[in-house]
Amino acid sequence: MLFLLAMLSAGLYGYSRSGHARTLAMNRINAAIPGTLSAGQIRLLAEGALLRLDDIRLMDAKGNFCLAFDSLRLKIQWRSLFDKVLEISLLQIDGLTLNLIEDATGRINLVNALTAGDDMPEDSPETIRPEPACL
């Protein structure tokens, strides 16, 4: 069993350094957002527990620069993924650059790059408070 885990880790490590892994990840992300995300490298480090993304750039749908950072380190608890939970124990961003611009409707270009207009709720959900019980 230990041998199988070692082989799986080695395979994931090797695949994470291939251009195919980066292209696949960027295509999936860009299909889900209005903006465009690019990455220089995506690496799987420390026996699969740490993801490192280098040279990340985000452009809005109009092609304007919104966000960039030199590197991002993300430590994920892989066991929690089996429960369909994303548990992050480390998030480190180095070299962050933001270019935030507000449009005529008051929305910021970074939000526009990550969410479509219909993804954002117009109003906050109504809070319903239960009636106090009489004993």
How would you explain this protein's 3D organization?
The chain has one domain. Helix content is 29%, strand content 29%. The chain has helices spanning 2-16, 19-32, 78-81, 109-114, and strands at 36-38, 41-45, 50-59, 65-76, 88-94, 97-98. Strands 1, 2, 3, 4, 5 and 6 form a six-stranded antiparallel beta sheet that branches. The longest helix is centred in the first third of the chain and has 15 residues, at 2-16. It is globular.
Summarize the topology:
Blueprint: H1 2-16, H2 19-32, E1 36-38, E2 41-45, E3 50-59, E4 65-76, H3 78-81, E5 88-94, E6 97-98, H4 109-114
Antiparallel strand pairs: 1-3, 2-3, 3-4, 4-5, 4-6
Identify the notable features of this structure and list them briefly.
135 residues; alpha+beta; six-stranded antiparallel sheet
Give a nutshell description of this structure.
Helices cover 29% and strands 29% of the residues. It has 135 residues and is an alpha+beta fold. The protein has one domain.
- Spatial separation of the terminal alpha carbons: 59 Å
Rg (CA only): 20 Å
Number of strands: 6
Number of helices: 4
Q: What is the average of the pLDDT values?
A: 78
Largest sheet: 6 strands, antiparallel
Helix content: 25-40%
Count of all domains: 1
Q: How much of the sequence is in beta strands?
A: 25-35%
Q: Structural class, please?
A: alpha+beta
